[in-house]
């Protein structure tokens, strides 16, 4: 690896998967950078649900990590075979129809497809997934000396020859050549950069993330499963989980599940996005109290400390808006395009951002006028398509409906 440059660093706000993969790209290109994260450490809060990786998502990660780094990443991923999604009636435990091969078709009463088809397998005919926590740890490897925890970026200021991040306590970062906002749906950088054009809408749907020992999933068996409950008078409840082979007899291995519900079903005091642990776990247990015995272990044996409540949000379904380009500031991941978990597009689009921006910066040897404009031009095309697809799935599956007059977060 070449000697580290004496140039001013690229500043990165946030230490989520898109921010850390960008940092990894800069590290490999010997471009100096600093990461600022408001949390106290990588283990400060629950990591959320398991991420399903698309072919494009895997290609993006591989392009950044290179052969050796990607092999470590690939070895950490779980690979699930089977015939695509299988659906189970959560109250009776019986199978709903047949698993579809490599796609989901949401059907109406006349059996014609009502929603878009969702690809599941991504490489070698397998459904490939990895926990958010494992992904962050792998992307962070080697970047640790350049990460500053407990630094909440609330704005930025341009200088004559660079940019500074401004923190919640009023202090400022060193001057950087460029700032990248990668701090998620509440990004202050995104709001300032886009002059309010980047908005994240509250769909009204809510969810719970949970984990349980792999032995709790033996009643399901290998596959990608949707557990559907239409019996709740307030609306539909469902759980999606990915059960990998070869680990269902090991109680030391944990699998995750993601619960979602239509608007009005899940409510917490003050609609507190930060609700984690036992209070979030109790909500999931209450909603599944009448579920079939083959499914109950997923909730009865869950690790309560890892449970987390979340709001299901989405950017404007019409796509990522345009804003006046600022050569020294841009945004990646959820800061640029929030998506529902339907379709599994969010994380895959985020890593595509990191790979694209990292490649452009690498080719330029660091900051160069025109880099952010070129990145944003290309990013808007594929991310707008992903947002539309994500919203399309969610509107069919969860009955959500948003437009530019909807409530924002």
TrEMBL record:
InterPro entries: FAD-bd, FAD/NAD-bd_sf. Residues 98-123 have a biased composition (Basic and acidic residues). Its cofactor is FAD. This is FAD-binding domain-containing protein. Keywords: FAD, Flavoprotein, Monooxygenase, Oxidoreductase. Pfam families: FAD_binding_3 (PF01494). Residues 147-387 form the FAD-binding domain. Gene3D superfamilies: FAD/NAD(P)-binding domain (3.50.50.60). The lineage of its organism: Eukaryota, Fungi, Dikarya, Ascomycota, Pezizomycotina. GO terms for molecular function: FAD binding; monooxygenase activity. Residues 85-123 are annotated as: Disordered.
